[in-house]
Write a structure and sequence with these properties.
5-stranded antiparallel beta sheet; 5-stranded mixed beta sheet; alpha+beta; DNA primase DNAg catalytic core, N-terminal domain; Dna Topoisomerase Vi A Subunit, Chain: A, domain 2
């Protein structure tokens, strides 16, 4: 879906119609002292209020953690949503019409359809919940009892039961049309013979980040050779399995009320429910066990730290290995908690209790150590061929680590397991030949930019705003790798004050975001940021040249590389651009 960009005039109108004190008061308790409103900061844990709201100038600032901004930024942060989503939410709150970028009538019709579908799904959820306590739900009640679900678990996750096709009749009586129930993914059949698609199953409603029911996952209650154990709502206008996280609404509620140190990621709904029941209330699961980039992106908005706690069997190990690069790409700090072989979180909790799980999570290991452990278990290092395979693959895993100091941590583990002296392992790790093509070099540079976005954003913001301290006498684009930044600067240089009309939607949103950010100013800070960008770029190129030198085949190649390295070293030593 194409990103949205709203005009600054319309955004200003949304801000004017949403008083920041009233909006913030709808999320947290606020009290007035002097001319300022105060509250406990919702973005970090504190015992005394340091979160100030300036009603006259319509901004907030926390003197504890430094967070601050306007009403839109507050909604972005508290809801963990994007800028366009926050603007739309505030527009709806104020009754402001959202600009239409497609056929206006069709958009209004689609919005109405979506509202009807959500209303039907939420009505169905209530009916399912009530069904669970009826005499006809005996099989479901026995299953719930067998899984040791508490009443609080059932209520918290809105668990219910489908007792046949009565749901359809009840929803039709409430005024929902056959077409709406079909679009909601609830109803199947034709020619006036309709049925509940989840009939006879225990129902786990799936809620979005706003707490709205968007679909269901139903578990079969009797053994069957032809029915799937779990059946999810099919793809609808509100239900997309690849972007829904089970328990996300509770995770965001938790973040509003207390510090959120990490997210615990498990495989299924029952594991989420049991983890919450035992007090681990930051637990979520991707809908369907396969984690997607969409899942990771959504979770990254809520917290930077994540613990993977998938099942201890072979399937769980494979799922963990698939999830790690997806989470790494999104920039998470990742740890992996290893459950005993064949155990899932539910079984482990029943046998070891909350204390046992707490100890397990505290012992969670890094992805590199996790991969090394699995590799050791896979190879019999008591045999020469097994040890050789283990060492070869282990070295390749450790080479994923960028710094030598961190590599040494893992090389010591390999040395202890294999008996090979660490000096030999270091030499093997350093001498391992690999070539980096231009695309790989670009990836490295982009990675550095991702770690230094604060400096880049401030420099770009200053240049685009024409600050008097932002003049540079060199081509800044030479030290950037991200094509988004380069494209924006090219258009600014070519079209000057009219550059915004030439930007793509993605570029417009990026510019809008950096203009919204509150940053320190002045020439001294600008110069520091410029040097930081240049320094990181040069150091990255230095690392790349070092690797190229190791595999250079001719004297001419080595001489050329050495000359480039000499130039870079002089630039770094002299802080010369």
């Amino acid at each position: 879906m194409q990103k949205k960009f709203y005009s600054s005039q319309w955004v200003d109108q949304v801000k004017e119609k949403n008083d920041i004190v009233q909006v913030i008061s709808s999320y947290i308790n606020v009290s007035k002292r002097g001319g300022v409103y105060w509250a406990l900061c919702p973005f970090h844990h504190e015992k005394t209020p340091s979160f100030a709201i300036n009603e006259d100038e319509q901004y907030y600032h926390c003197f504890g953690c430094g967070e601050g901004g306007n009403v839109i930024k507050f909604v972005q942060q508290i809801e963990s949503i994007s800028f366009p989503e926050a603007v739309e939410k505030l527009a709806e709150r104020a009754g402001i019409e959202i600009p239409q970028f497609e056929n206006g009538e069709q958009i209004i019709k689609n919005k109405k359809t979506k509202e009807n579908v959500l209303n039907a799904l939420n009505a169905a959820m209530e009916i399912y919940q009530n069904n669970l306590y009826l005499p006809v739900a005996k099989q479901a009640q026995e299953y719930v009892k067998m899984r040791n679900f508490k009443k609080s678990d059932l209520d918290k996750f809105h668990i219910g039961y489908s007792n046949g096709n009565t749901l359809i009749n009840e929803l039709l009586k409430k005024g929902y049309s056959i077409e709406t129930l079909e679009k909601a993914g609830i109803l199947g059949g034709e020619n006036n013979k309709y049925y509940d698609k989840l009939s006879g199953r225990l129902i786990f409603p799936v809620l979005n980040s706003y707490g709205e029911c968007v679909g269901y996952s139903g578990r079969i209650l009797e053994k069957s050779d032809y029915k799937a154990k779990y059946k999810n709502t099919e793809q609808t206008i509100v239900f997309d399995k690849s972007s829904l996280v089970y328990g996300l609404n509770l995770l965001k509620d938790k973040k509003r009320n207390e510090p959120l140190n990490e997210i615990i990621l498990v495989e299924g709904q029952i594991d989420v429910i049991k983890m919450h029941s035992y007090g681990f209330t930051s637990t979520v699961a991707s809908l369907g066990t396969a984690l997607t980039e969409k899942h990771a992106n959504i979770l990254k908005r809520v917290c930077d730290n994540i613990i993977i706690c998938y099942d201890g069997d072979l399937a769980g190990q494979k799922a963990s290995l698939r999830a790690i690069p997806i989470l790494e790409k999104e920039g998470f700090n990742i740890k992996v908690a290893r459950l005993p072989n064949g155990k899932d979180p539910d079984e482990f909790l029943r046998e070891n209790g909350a204390k046992g799980m707490e100890n397990l999570l505290n012992k969670a290991i890094s992805p590199i150590e996790y991969k090394l452990q699995l590799l050791l278990e896979k190879n019999d290092i008591s045999k020469p061929e097994g040890k050789a395979t283990y060492l070869k693959n282990a070295i390749e895993i450790v080479q994923q680590v960028k710094t030598h100091s961190e590599r040494d941590v893992y090389l010591k583990i390999i040395s202890n397991e294999s008996g090979v002296p660490i000096d030999i392992l270091r030499r093997d790790c350093d001498n391992h030949n690999f070539k980096q093509n231009e695309n790989e070099e670009k990836k490295v540079l982009n990675s550095v930019e991702n770690g230094n976005k604060k400096a880049i954003k401030f420099v770009l913001k200053s240049v685009l705003k024409g600050e008097n301290f932002s003049k540079v006498d060199f081509d800044l684009k030479k030290y950037l790798a991200n094509p988004l930044y380069i494209s924006i600067l090219n258009k600014f240089e070519e079209f000057k004050e009219n550059y915004t009309s030439q930007l793509s939607e993605e570029e417009k949103n990026f510019v809008l975001d950096i203009f919204q950010e509150k940053t320190p100013g002045g020439k001294e800070y600008f110069d520091q940021c410029i040097w930081k960008i240049v320094e990181d770029n040069l150091k990255t190129k230095q690392l790349i040249l070092n690797e190229k030198f190791k595999i250079a085949e001719t004297k001419e190649e080595r001489t050329e590389i050495l000359n480039e390295l000499k130039t870079i070293i002089n630039q770094l030593n002299e802080r010369k651009i």
